[in-house]
Design a protein that fits this description.
With 229 residues, the chain is mainly α. 71% of the residues lie in helices and 2% in strands. The chain has a two-stranded antiparallel ribbon. Helix 4 runs parallel beside helix 11.
Length: 229
């Protein structure tokens, strides 16, 4: 464990403490006051939702700063991957707040009224026939992809030279052990909370961990060469 935390920064300690506190509160209210947990702690346009958006924007800015400062020291694919990540996190942030619908009091179009489970201007709540996009793409598939990234990718990165070479070739940020452990602990604890809306808390915690990975990846010296600036 000491090796896992030997290079942890004060900034990481603060945000991991925020994550731990948020999950503890979620566990407490989830078991003792499900109504408060669902309708206040995890309510739409609440603290958890907007914090999730802020972490997503923080991730965008982190990768943009890295691209801006180090693009001249890297090849084109560094910029390609950087902008894919930036746009992906920006898209998720937009989806999280329904692209500002409630903030700017925008009307829902007829298409979204008919095909969106919550009648909002977003894609993740769309239904195609009997299939709910949120459960399929943003639930099962995304969770599986995150687990692969958090567990399998770091393991193979350290054990298989060809995979390490491939991931470094594409400048993929690699989670540190503490990031992977934090995600597994987060997933395990939230899984035991009774109310169904608990997955909003998993989303919040996952985004926070991803921001820390982007800030402090295992292969940061590759992404930010010390002699570049």
């Amino acid at each position: 464990m000491s090796k896992t935390l030997k290079d942890i920064t004060k900034f990481e300690k603060i945000w991991l403490a925020v994550l731990i506190s948020s999950v503890i509160l979620g566990l407490y209210w989830g078991f003792t006051n499900p109504d408060f947990f669902t309708n206040y702690y995890l309510k739409e346009d609440g603290v958890i939702e907007y914090a999730t958006v802020l972490f997503l924007i923080g991730s965008c800015l982190t990768v943009f700063r890295r691209w801006k400062n180090y693009r001249k020291q890297h090849v084109v694919r560094f910029g390609l991957i950087s902008w894919i990540v930036i746009l992906a996190f920006f898209f998720v942030a937009g989806e999280e707040v329904s692209w500002g619908q409630r903030i700017f009091q925008l009307e829902t179009s007829e298409y979204f009224k008919e095909n969106n489970a919550q009648e909002e201007l977003n894609l993740h709540n769309l239904t195609v026939g009997e299939v709910k996009i949120n459960k399929l793409v943003f639930g099962l598939l995304l969770t599986t992809a995150i687990l692969i990234y958090m567990i399998l990718v770091p393991l193979l990165y350290h054990k298989v030279k060809s995979i390490k070479k491939f991931l470094d070739f594409w400048y993929i940020p690699i989670p540190k052990l503490r990031h992977s452990l934090a995600y597994l602990l987060l997933l395990g604890l939230i899984s035991i909370i009774p109310p169904g809306k608990k997955w909003e808390l998993l989303e919040f915690g996952s985004v926070l961990i991803f921001m820390l990975i982007l800030l402090y990846p295992f292969n940061k010296p590759l992404l930010e060469p010390e002699n570049s600036l």
